[in-house]
Amino acid sequence: MSPAPNNRSIVIDTTPLIALAAATGSLEILKALYGRIVVPFEVREEMLAAGRDATGVAEFKQATWLDCRDKPIDISPFIANSLDRGEASVIQTAIHERTDLVCIDETVGRRIARLSGLALTGSIGILIKAKRQGYSLAMPEALEKMRQHGIRLSAEVVRFALSQTR
């Protein structure tokens, strides 16, 4: 069963795209949860630069419903000097478009997003939300698939994810 998407928009970073593709074998989970999924130009470039055999690239290319931007965004010097291009573009795009929700997994990016007044989730948060809304998902298997694809998960994150989906 898949939940009905809401109309909420989200701006997503590279690492969550890779992690969600690894966990579920597609990016359909995003389509099931959000009305619009914005992928900044810089994130799109990072995904495609990894090469066609990299984790998540095929799934990314198949997700033609993603709102991929075709031009780079001007990033404020503070954000540009604090984060990598992908994370910085996610935050700047969200601010510019008045989209209050971003999906970032890295700690520093999450901190800057919060300081920028943005609501925040990550790949694990999306998996938990999907499971709670009835998306067919086995959390232990999803976490294991992420690990098998090189996604690092702390023991604390794993415990949290499992405790939220029992």
Explain this structure to me?
- The protein is built from 10 helices and 5 strands.
- The protein is of the alpha/beta class and 166 residues long.
- The protein has a single domain, classed as 5'-nuclease (Rossmann fold).
- The chain has a 5-stranded parallel β-sheet with strand order 3-2-1-4-5.
- β4, α7 and β5 form a beta-alpha-beta unit.
- The longest helix is centred in the middle third of the chain and has 13 residues, at 85-97.
CATH class bucket:
Alpha Beta
Overall average pLDDT: 93
- Name of the CATH superfamily: 5'-nuclease
What is the terminal-to-terminal distance? 17 Å
Strand content: 5-15%
CATH fold naming: Rossmann fold
- What's the total count of β strands? 5
Principal-axis shape equals globular
Low-confidence stretches: none
Count structural domains: 1
- Structural class from helices and strands? alpha/beta
Which radius of gyration do the C-alpha atoms yield?
15 Å
Helix % is 40-55%
